[in-house]
Write a structure and sequence with these properties.
The protein folds into two domains: 45 residues, no CATH class; 62 residues, no CATH class. The protein contains six helices and two strands; from the N terminus they run αβααβααα. It has a two-stranded parallel sheet with strand order 1-2.
């Protein structure tokens, strides 16, 4: 709760913020969710007994950290937003995916449309 309060306090804007977590007891507690609701932060929690949802989120998080260096400390929110936007663009438009027969997600999506 201290980390959550500190993050919310330090954020310049939390408008449109979504807090995603697994069903860990600390994230489902009344006190924790009350803080999120009071700050108008949307709550996203994996469905009960759907362990694969968290595995997908963890995989994406791992790719962002390992391949796009998103585990760095950003100087400000604008810097973080630019880095995330760049990582998503690289992921969707340049990075080839084995599961997509070495195509980018954009190529597959555009060919399906």
């Amino acid at each position: 709760m201290r980390a959550l309060n500190k993050a919310v306090y330090q954020a310049k804007s939390i408008k449109g913020l979504i807090h995603h977590s697994d069903r860990g007891i600390k994230y489902c507690s009344n006190i924790y969710t009350r803080i999120l609701k009071r700050k108008k932060v949307s709550i996203s929690i994996t469905e009960e007994n759907h362990c694969y949802e968290n595995a997908i989120a963890e995989r994406v998080k791992g790719i962002l950290k390992d391949e796009f260096y998103m585990d760095q400390t950003f100087t400000n929110t604008a810097h973080a937003k630019r880095a995330v936007k760049s990582a998503i663009k690289l992921y969707n438009e340049i990075r080839l995916h084995l599961s997509l027969d070495f195509k980018t997600p954009n190529i597959v999506y555009n060919n399906a449309a």
